[in-house]
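Exercise 7. Predict the structure of Stage II sporulation protein P from Ammonifex degensii.
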Amino acid sequence: MARSKLWLGIALVLGVICLAFWLGGRSLPALSSRTESYDGELGPGEFFTVVDKERRVIDRLAREVAPGDEFFTPEGKHYRVERVRGRVAEARLLGRDRDLLVWEAYFEQVAVPTAVLGPNRTVAIYHTHSDESYVPTDGAASIPYRGGILKVGARFSRRLERVGVRVNHDVTPHDPHDAYAYVRSRKTATRLLQSRPLAIFDVHRDGVPDPDFYRAYIRGSSVGQIRIVVGRQNPKMSANLDFAKRLMSYANRVHPGLVKGIYLGRGNYNQDLSPTALLLECGTHTLTRPEAERGVMLLAEAVPVVLGLEGSRPDLPEGERPLTERTPGAWRTVAWLLLAVVVGVGGYLLLSTGSWQGAKERLRHFWSRELGLRKKKE
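Solution. The predicted structure, encoded as C-alpha cells:
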C-alpha cells in the first residue's frame, strides 16, 4: 500500500510540474479560444507609440501593444515592453540580438547561393483582412471584399514568379474586418498548406496616420516599408521568428531600409500552421498603393534566396558571448525540470511522514524494495 501511495504521489507531482511548464510556456498557445480570434488591430488613424526609457520613439503601430511584446529593429536592437500607459508603451533595451548579428555577418561575408526550390514547391499568399486599402489611390481605408491590399498581394506574387518562385495567391475575402477574421482565414491558410508551400505570407497594411513613418527612398523611388509581425502565442513562434530575422537581414542588406522591423506580439495569426508563416504589414493606409507595391516587390527579391538557404544556422565564433537575453535552451529546461521533480518528491515525502528522518527512511525503504524485486525477476 505504501509503495502504491508513493508512486501515486510521484505521478501527481510530475503531472503538476508538467502542467505548470505547459501553462507557463512562452511560445505555447493560450488556453482561451480568444487566441485564434484575437486581432489586436486598431482602426485607421489609431496607434500605439513605443518609447525607450529616455522617451525616444522606437516604433509606432496600429495594434494593441501589451507588456511582454518585443521589437527587433533593423539595427539589431532588441526591446521588450514592460508597461503600457494609455497609448504609450515603455520598452526596455535587452541588447543587440545575437541571431540578427549572426545573419547580418553571414550575408555580408558569404556568397549566398541561388535558391533551389524544386518544381513542385510554392510560396502561398493570402489576406486575412481583404478590405484593407490605401486612401490616396483607393479612395478609402477599407473597401469590403475587394480592398487595395489584394492588388499589393498580386504584385508580390508576380514579382516572386519573375524571380523563379511558383506562387499560390488566394484572394478569398474574409470580411468583415473583425476579431474573427483570423478564424475565417484559417480555412484558407489550411487549404493553401495542402500544396506544402515553403512559406506562407498573410499580407496586410498598417494604420499609422503619418505616411512618412512608412516611407523610404530606395533606388531613387519612394517605397512603402514593410513590418514583419510574429505572434508570440504560437507553438511555432521560434521558427517563425528565425525566418523573420533571416528575411529582414537579407532584404535590408540588398535594399537598406526596406524592412522596418519585427514585432513579436500577442496573438497567433494562424502561424501555428507553419514554421515559415509570416504576417507582412505593407505600408500604411495613408501611403499610395503604388508605394506599397514597390516595397513588396523589393521584398520578393529576397524571399527565394532566404528560402534556399540550407543546413544549420551559422553561429558566432567560439567563445563569443551572447549579446542579449535569450530563452533558456532545451538542456537548461531539462535541468530545471529534474530539479523540480527532486524538490517535489522531497516535499511530498516530508509532508507524508512529518519529518526529514521519516522521509529518508521511506525513500531508503522504497529503493531497497525496488532493487530487491528487480533482483528476484532477474
